[in-house]
Amino acid sequence: MGIQSDSHPVGRKFIVADDHPLFRSALRQSIGQAFPDAVLEEAHDMESLQECVAANEDCDLLLLDLHMPGAHGFSGLAFLTGQYPQLPVMVVSANEKPEIMCRAIDYGACGFLPKSAPAETIAAALHRVLAGEIWLPEGVSAACAQQESAAEAVADAVATLTPQQFRVASMLGEGLLNKQIAYEMDVTEATVKAHLTALFRKLGVNSRTQAVLALNSLDVEPPGQFSPPPRQPAPA
């Protein structure tokens, strides 16, 4: 009693970012089985996630859903890896296309965990990425071709945005007007215009339409309806 096994590191801190409470619960259970002494924080959208990461900069691993409210596809990943380069981010998604997994690695993720993965696979994946490795499901090459593309250039630009500029970019992608963005952020329209000017410069565009098209290059096709992994019996 009281002796900790090397296979169960003490005090690992995880952030689980997903807008589905059911999946957060399933993932929390899997993490708890693999790391009994883990500390878990949760976020349900990009705004709460930014607050959570800022308050937990000693986090060991962030598990990030690709379809978080307040982000467009890979924009959330690109932003977080740019703002917090020391924070390992593992993408979690029901979209299990190999090209999506490879893009996640290209944009800075340390791994890609399918939502269909059973508890034992989740445990193995977490141990691998916490050991500093990149983890992808069996059969997906870890040596994904790193091809420079327009989308990667946009991801690099998104990584340099401030939190306020990122919020403006996300609402711009949702089709909100300056007046609506100002209302949502509780700022003046002049402030929104200043953020847009900076955003256009970083994206290398000259108009709202061009900015939206650039941001859309990071979008990911929504997966089908999610079914959580089966619950695993507690160890005897």
Automatic annotation (TrEMBL):
Keywords: DNA-binding, Phosphoprotein. PROSITE patterns: HTH_LUXR_1, HTH_LUXR_2, RESPONSE_REGULATORY. It comes from the Bacteria. The modification 4-aspartylphosphate is found at D65. This is Two component transcriptional regulator, LuxR family. One of its GO terms (molecular function) is DNA binding. One of its GO terms (biological process) is phosphorelay signal transduction system. Gene3D superfamilies: 3.40.50.2300. Residues 13-130 form the Response regulatory domain. Residues 154-219 form the HTH luxR-type domain. SMART domains: HTH_LUXR, REC.
